Amino acid sequence: MPESIISLPPGDPDDKEVISFRSLELLKARAVGEKDHTDRREVLLTLAKNSRENGDIFEFIKERAVEDSHYSVRKVALQELARFWHENPETLPFLRERATEDCNYEVRRAAVKELAENWKHLPEIPELLRYWAENAGDKFVRSTSLQELSRCWGKNCCSLDFITDRAVKEKDGFVRAIAIQSVAKYWSTEPAALQLLMDKALNDEHYAVRSAALQELAGKWPSREDILPFIKERAVKDDHYSVRGVAIQELANGWRNEPEIQDFIKDRCIHDEDNMVRGTAVSLLASLWPEEPGTFELIMDTAISDEHYSVRKNAMEELAKTWHEKPETLHLVRDRLLNDSDNFVRVNAVQELAKIWHTDSGTLPLIKEIALKEKDEFVRDAAVRELIDGWQDENVKKFVNKFT
């Protein structure tokens, strides 16, 4: 960065004042004129940090919080105003305005967060956020208002009826999910809270709400006899893959010592209709039950037989990570490199061989053969890249020069 107001050499006091003024003007010009928004942002940070007593800089940063063309610069400007000028009477109303008027949701969210964090002692702020949580036209303002109400004031500013109303009547699914999380966090001892979450986990139209409700049920009510069978049911019957994936994660993490859970996750690994759920089941089995009989064999079979490339790829990665010392794993990775029908799986096999079995006597000749003879350009390029990055031997370098 050009001359800084921090690094100016001491001299005559009058000269220093002039130089400082010139430096500020230079920085202000850069904060407006730099083409790269990251440069403009850094200049604003410098101005705010080192000129907090300067009223002109306060006005300048306010202007940039409105006028800059990039949302991240406007966002930083708001944050710096709240940080260094929160006692200025103009800052609070300005942030209130930007929370609803800025054209970018990240800036609006940032304004709401700064209001809650820096003016939480004012009774009008939680009242304002309650109003926005219910009535703001922008879902991002509504969601952030709910989050900040929960974070800063908990149950001290909102009743269970108010949050329940948001969980039921809010039109946006992600905002309803936030309300569900708040209900579980602060009112888990209330029978109405449990009833609400069971209903939303089963009947809400949005997958994010059903997922959030299942997570909270598993976290707050794991000892209830009806929770485990309920989550198992949703892991099979929910029509959205994301909810089923969340359900099996909660089952594995919360009830891993229950005898039937491992078998249930194995079943989902084989029979769920969605590749994302099957892939999640593979990772859970590998991480939580690596020593249990049948786990290794099932994941080996999945790496070969699953119909979706992403599940085969994930299974191979888990085998390489957890069972790389087994000779069967090395044999499988080599086989997938040569025989899998998908080039993403084969590229991954090249990478795993180079990373984990780098010193094996068969690895370098196989990767060289792939680099030389493979027809698929992505697999061939992956092999060449691994040779370049992984072997500094002069003979390998000469071999690679054929391709570079």
From TrEMBL:
Superkingdom of source: Archaea
A matching Pfam family: HEAT_2
InterPro entries listed in its UniProt record: ARM-like (IPR011989), ARM-type_fold (IPR016024)
SUPFAM superfamilies on file: ARM repeat (SSF48371)
GO molecular function terms noted in the UniProt entry: oxidoreductase activity
PANTHER family: DEOXYHYPUSINE HYDROXYLASE, PBS LYASE HEAT-LIKE PROTEIN
Name recorded for this polypeptide: Oxidoreductase/HEAT repeat-containing protein
Organism this protein belongs to: Methanosarcina siciliae T4/M
Species classification: Archaea, Methanobacteriati, Methanobacteriota, Stenosarchaea group, Methanomicrobia
